[in-house]
Specification:
heterodimer, A: mainly alpha, MetI-like fold, B: four-stranded antiparallel sheet, globular, transmembrane helix (chain A)
Amino acid sequence: MFDYNFHWRPVMKSLPDLLEAASLTLQVAVLAMVLGIVIGLCLALARLHLRGPVYWFATAWVELARNTPALFQLFFFGFGLGAFGLHLSPYLIVLAGLTFNCAGYLAENFRGGFKAVPETQIRASRSLGMTPWQAYSRVVIPQVFRIVYHPITNQMVWAVLMSSLGMLVGFRELSGETQFFASRTFRIFEYFAVTAVIYYAIVKVILLSSRLMAARLFRY
Amino acid sequence: MISIRDLHKYFGALHVLKGIDLDVQKGEVLSVIGASGSGKSTLLYCINGLEAIQDGAVTVDGTDVHAKGTDINKLRQKLGMVFQQWNSFPHLTALENVALAPRIVKGKSKAEAREIAAMQLQHVGLGEKLDVYPGALSGGQQQRLAIARALAMEPEYMLFDEATSALDPELVGEVLDTMRLLADEGMTMICVTHEMGFARDVSDRVAFFHQGVMEEIGPPAQIFGDARSEHTRKFLANVR
C-alpha cells in the first residue's frame, strides 16, 4: 500500500536557496535569448542573402542546433571542448549550449519572418531614397519583429525549461540546486514537486508579460 | 529634364525594352499606355534606378542614373514613385508613413517631418486620418497615402506605376482626382496607366508602348484621334 510520508519542512527551509537558484536560471535563459536573437538574426540574414562559406556555416549551425538533442549540444560545450583542453565553467557551458540552440531555432523563425515581408516594401523604401540599411532597419525588421514575436516568446519559455539540463553538467541553477538538496535529504519527490511549481510560475510570468507587452507594442 | 537614350533592358534572355528614346520636360505630364508586358512599368523602374539597365542611358537633370559614381539615394529624392500595390508601411500610422523618409533620409527634425507629413496628408485629402494605421484605410486612401509619402520628399518628378490598377472601381476616381490635382499644380509626371480618360484629359503627351518599343508618342488628340501605328489603333479599339 501507499506508505510514503511527505516531509515538506526541509524543502521549505531551503526555499530561499531554491529561489536564488531560480534567479540564476532566469538570468542564464535571458542572456542566452538576447545572444540567441542577435546571432539568430545574423544567421537568418546569412542564409537569405549570402552564398559560399558564410552561408554554409550558418546552415550547419541551424541544422545541428535543430536536429540534435539539446543535451548533446550542452555536452559538446562541456565534455567536447574539455577533451581538447578547453574547460568552461558550468555557467558558461549552459550559456553557450542554450545560446547555440536558441540561435538555431530563432534563425529559422527570423528567416520565415523575412520571407513574409513582401519585397515591394523594400522597393517602396528605396524609391524614397532610403539606403538598404535604412529600409531594413526602419521598414522590414519592425514588421519581421511582429511576425516572430510569439515564436520568440515560445523560445524564451523553452530556454527557461531547457536550462534544467544544466544539472547534468554540474550547474547549480534551479534543477541543479534541487538535485543537490534532494540527494542530501532524500526528499526527492518533495523537492522536485516544489521546483516544478517554481518553473510553472516563472513561465506563467513570462507568458503574461509577453502578452501585456504585445498589446502595447502592436497597435496595428 | 528626364532624358532617355537608346535604353535596353533585359530580364535574362527576355528583351523588355528595345532602344527607348524619350525626353520629358519639366512641367510635362506624360501618360504611357500599352498592353501588359509591353515594358511600360519597367521603364519607370529604370528611370529611378530600381532596375539596372543593359545599354543606353537615363539622365535626370544631367545626372546619369546608372553611372557608377551617382548617389542614387540622393537622386531618388527628386523622383517620387507611386506603385500599383500602394506599399504603405503597415506598422506605421499614416502620419509616420509620410514622416519617415523626410526624417531619416533628409535629416529633418521629428517635429518638422511631422509637420510636412500632416501638410501632405491634408493635400491628398487624408487630413482626418493622421493617426490611422494603413490596415484601417481603403485601397484608395492607401494609394493617396502613398502619393503623400512620395510628395513629402518634395520631388521634382512623380512616377506613377499603374496607380489605380489594383483598386476597386469605385475607388479609382479619388486617386485620379489627386493625380489631376498634382498635374494642375505643375508637377512633372510620368504616368503608366490603363485609364484612357485620364491619359486623354490630363496628359500633355501620350506614349504608346508595344512589345518593348515605343511605337508612337504625341499629343492625346493625335494618339486617340489619329494614331499612325496599326498597333496603337488596335490597342485603343480593344480598351474602349
